[in-house]
């Protein structure tokens, strides 16, 4: 759980960041939860857990929407490529029509 992971959080995480490490959002939430729990008393502890759950769900939704956005962007790129192909085919068809029209005019 979050608290189990958070027990090791603290100075080591700060040292990792100072050494150039990148903190993941879930790790940041763990560290903040642990810090809040250390300063919380009584009923505040429940509110810390509620806040942690709310933020964890928000992170999950954000990650989910990020994946959906990536999928949409990939679909958009595929559609753009297909439209370019169609536009090129339309251009070739127009040239063929112009050539056919020219040939017909010479034969008439």
Quick overview:
It is built from four helices and no strands. By secondary structure, it is mainly alpha-helical.
Describe the protein in words.
- The protein is mostly helical and 108 residues long.
- It has helices spanning 2-6, 11-18, 25-39, 44-107.
- α3 runs antiparallel to α4.
Q: Give the amount of beta strand, in percent.
A: under 5%
State the separation between the terminal residues, measured CA to CA.
85 Å
Q: What's the story with the biggest beta sheet?
A: none
- Please state the overall shape, judged from the principal axes of the Cα atoms: rod-shaped
Share of helix, binned: over 70%
Based on CA atoms alone, the radius of gyration comes out at: 30 Å
Average pLDDT figure: 85
Oligomer category:
single chain
- The succession of helices and strands, N to C, reads HHHH
Sum up the structure in keywords.
mainly alpha, disordered N terminus
Task: Describe the secondary-structure layout.
Elements: H1 2-6, H2 11-18, H3 25-39, H4 44-107
């Amino acid at each position: 759980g979050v608290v189990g992971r958070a027990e090791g959080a603290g100075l080591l995480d700060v040292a990792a960041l100072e050494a150039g490490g990148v903190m993941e959002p879930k790790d940041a939430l763990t560290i903040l939860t642990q810090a809040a729990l250390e300063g919380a008393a009584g009923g505040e502890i429940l509110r810390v857990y509620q806040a942690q759950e709310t933020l964890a769900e928000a992170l999950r939704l954000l990650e989910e929407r990020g994946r959906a956005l990536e999928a949409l962007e990939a679909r958009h790129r595929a559609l753009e490529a297909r439209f370019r192909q169609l536009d090129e085919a339309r251009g070739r068809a127009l040239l063929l029509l112009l050539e056919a029209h020219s040939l017909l005019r010479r034969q008439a």
